[in-house]
Write a structure and sequence with these properties.
By secondary structure, the protein is an alpha/beta fold. It has a single domain (2-217), classed as TIM Barrel. The protein contains seven helices and six strands; from the N terminus they run H-E-H-E-E-H-E-H-E-H-E-H-H. The protein has helices spanning 2-38, 58-66, 87-96, 112-129, 149-165, 176-180, 211-217; strands spanning 44-47, 71-78, 82-83, 100-106, 138-141, 170-173. Strands 1, 2, 3, 4, 5 and 6 form a six-stranded mixed sheet that branches. Helix 4 packs parallel to helix 5. The longest helix has 37 residues, at 2-38. Belongs to the glycosyl hydrolase 25 family. Keywords: Signal. One of its GO terms (biological process) is cell wall macromolecule catabolic process. Residues 1-38 form the signal peptide. GO terms for molecular function: lysozyme activity.
């Protein structure tokens, strides 16, 4: 009798967890479809393990594509050892849904050597997940002022150059205040990514005017 009740509680717990996960996914989809219909210029979402510990389902990406979104920007790695546990599911499902897929690395750049090490880690993670340059861009997310403006700019350029040399299309993910504020952490005039405005082939990302800038202007919605 005791074993029966334990099995019953086990299956009930699994059922409830599945029900909750399904409900959260539906709410997440609705939160994107509503603004997409109201403002069709919103064209991308930024996803990571924070949104769903198992990755977002194919149905989510199919739904937001029908709602007008064109791309997904997916977190892959961080520093020199962290791998987002949902990247494989998110990249595969976003690609299967027909969205443009971009991958980003959260940078913690402290030296040229560190920039090269983080590039190597990002590249390894992209290869392991089967990310192809034809999917979209390899993006460096620079949000931390880990060095002086001149040094951080140099480290960022090193990261971008290393990724470009590996055959990836590249871009910078940062906010306008980080390179164009009163006390910027990046020197925009010396960054290797210089073209302002949206890229014709990748509407979700622009050079310099990157994802975070688009978010600030209200033309994109992130899920980070």
């Amino acid at each position: 009798m005791g074993k029966y009740h334990k099995r019953k509680r086990f299956w009930l717990k699994r059922f409830l967890n599945g029900l909750i996960a399904g409900a959260l996914t539906i709410l997440l989809v609705l939160s994107f479809i509503a603004p997409a219909q109201a403002t069709p210029e919103k064209d991308f979402v930024d996803v990571s393990h924070w949104n769903n510990s198992k990755g977002l389902p194919l149905s989510f990406y199919q739904t937001i594509k029908r709602g007008g979104y064109k791309a997904a920007v997916i977190k892959v790695s961080d520093s020199t050892s962290y791998l987002d546990p949902t990247m494989s599911v998110n990249i595969a499902n976003a690609h299967a849904a027909g969205l443009r897929v971009h991958a980003y690395h959260f940078a913690r750049l402290t030296s040229i050597a560190d920039a090269k090490a983080e590039t190597a880690w990002f590249s390894t993670c992209l290869k392991n997940v089967g990310f192809k340059s034809s999917y979209g861009m390899a993006v460096v997310d620079v949000e931390l002022a880990t060095a002086s403006k001149s040094k951080l700019t140099s480290y960022t350029n090193t990261f971008l150059a290393q990724m470009k040399a590996k055959g990836y299309k590249i871009d910078l993910y940062t906010g306008s205040a980080f390179y164009n504020g009163k006390d910027p952490s990046l020197d925009a005039s010396k960054l290797s990514v210089k073209t302002l405005g949206l890229l014709d082939t990748v509407p979700a990302i622009s050079n310099l005017l990157g994802l975070m800038e688009k978010k600030e202007r209200g033309s994109g919605q992130t899920m980070k």
